[in-house]
Specification:
The protein is built from seven helices and 28 strands. The protein has 391 residues and is α/β, with parallel strands linked by helices. The chain has four domains: 158 residues, MoaB/Mog-like domain (Molybdenum Cofactor Biosythetic Enzyme, Chain A), CATH 3.40.980; 49 residues, Molybdopterin biosynthesis moea protein, domain 2, CATH 3.90.105; 83 residues, Molybdopterin biosynthesis moea protein, domain 3 (Molybdopterin biosynthesis moeA protein, domain 3); 68 residues, Beta Barrel (Beta-clip), CATH 2.40.340.10. The strands form eight sheets. A six-stranded mixed β-sheet has the order 8-5-7-6-10-9, with no helix packed on it. A six-stranded mixed β-sheet has the order 18-15-19-23-22-20, with helices on both faces. A five-stranded mixed beta barrel has the order 24-26-25-27-28. A hairpin with a 2-residue loop joins strand 22 and strand 23. Helix 1 crosses helix 6 and helix 3 runs parallel beside helix 6. The two termini are 29 Å apart.
Length: 391
């Protein structure tokens, strides 16, 4: 067996970064920007008022000074001309500041009678003007790679980009294996169960940037498994669930090898999730997950998400570890790294009492995986432990 960190490192060596494509701005949220983009213009493109008021020359802005209003500047409709001595322009938020003005006096600080205004306060040092290029200038860069958040989309639009260069979504094919499985909505026999892992992993992959295909369930025979593998042709990542152990019915590794799998590793010193394997099968990366529902989902967070991020051009790094204070004591841990379902709130964390790898209810009630190092000593209330968020 190899360690979790060793398995991740080996997986990263198998990753091939996706090609890029142009994506409409309206569809780019959540995608990964592949190359930096440069602003095509300056924002704001002109000095603009940040308040409603009157534009004047600050040299003349003495208490009780009077000005003649000679025009108006509104957003999209600038005042044409140059301000002269003793003149003011009525101006609105976002409007271009007229030539000759360097101060906007807010309307509350002015008394107006007809076309004549009088300043009611002293200058306070605030010009109420946003200078040209205050936000960004032509050629300024949005760096990549980055997952495009809504604020990034707004910035890209402001930079005048209608399409963005992004990494293509990896195509992920998910194969559940086993005679005991039926699809949700079907009627299982007394010896069958529902294929739940497939749908949980599909949701996890798609929420993090993949295009996912659920393939038919492969039965526990070579012909069926070979047929289903053929349906995964063209996928960037093939995920198999179950059939990776060493029982007589666990034939995934043998069939995959006969189809060209170059296995990189098998078995990881962790719980849940020990019977994990990975390698390359032609142009596809293949990861074989254990069949227990929780084991498969835990491996999804620990291995598949970092792999997916790496395929999308993001840094090759494990899931982010956080720390919290134990609210309940823990016994000593065994020789394998243990990822315990847990709940955390306000800086405290508690591991669920039941950790059986078949209990999806416990996983659904958890928002964290509390990490126990191999051979970790017993932990007391108040000690700091590491965890990974799964919410």
């Amino acid at each position: 067996m190899i360690s979790v960190s060793e398995a991740l490192s080996m997986l990263f060596t198998l990753v091939r970064v996706q090609e890029t494509e142009m994506c409409p701005l309206t569809l780019s949220a959540g995608r990964v920007l592949a190359t930096p983009i440069a602003a095509k213009l300056t924002q704001p493109p002109f000095a603009a008022s940040s308040m409603d008021g009157y534009a004047i020359n600050s040299i003349e802005a003495d208490l009780h000074a009077q000005f003649v209003v000679v025009g108006e500047s509104a957003a999209g409709h600038r005042f044409e001309g140059k301000l002269g001595a003793g003149q003011a322009v009525r101006i609105f938020t976002g409007a271009p500041v007229p030539e000759g003005a360097d101060l906007v006096v807010i309307q509350e600080d002015v008394e107006r009678r007809g076309k004549l205004i009088t300043l009611l306060t002293e200058k306070d040092g605030n010009s109420n003007i946003r200078p040209a290029g205050q936000d960004f200038c032509t050629g300024d860069i949005m760096p990549a790679p980055r997952v495009l958040a809504p604020s990034d989309i707004a910035l890209a639009a402001s930079m005048n980009h209608a399409n963005l260069p992004v990494f293509k979504k990896p195509v992920v094919a998910i194969i559940s294996t086993g005679d005991e499985l039926v699809q949700p909505g079907e009627s299982p026999t007394p010896d069958q169960i529902i294929a739940s892992n497939t749908y949980g992993l599909k949701a996890l992959m798609e929420a993090n940037g993949a295009e996912t295909r659920i393939l038919p369930i492969a039965r526990d025979n070579r012909a069926s498994l070979e047929t289903i593998f053929s349906l995964a042709d063209g996928a960037d990542l093939i995920i198999t669930i179950g059939g990776a152990s060493v029982g007589e019915h666990d034939i995934v590794a043998d069939v995959a090898a006969s189809l060209g799998l170059e296995q990189s590793f098998y078995k990881v010193a962790m719980r849940p999730g020990k019977p994990l394997m990975a390698g390359r099968m032609g142009t596809s990366l293949m990861v074989g997950l254990p069949g227990n529902p929780v084991s498969a989902m835990v491996c999804g967070h620990i291995f598949l998400l970092p792999v997916l991020r790496a395929m999308l051009g993001l840094p090759k790094e494990p899931a982010k570890r956080l720390s919290a204070t134990l609210s309940h004591s823990l016994p000593s841990n065994g020789p394998r790294e243990h990822y315990m379902r847990a709940s955390q709130k306000d800086g405290y964390i508690k591991a669920a009492e039941r950790q059986d790898s078949a209990l999806l209810t416990i996983l659904s009630q958890s928002d964290a995986l509390l990490i126990r190092p191999p051979n970790d000593q017993a932990r007391a209330v108040g000690e700091q432990v590491e965890f990974i968020s799964i919410s």
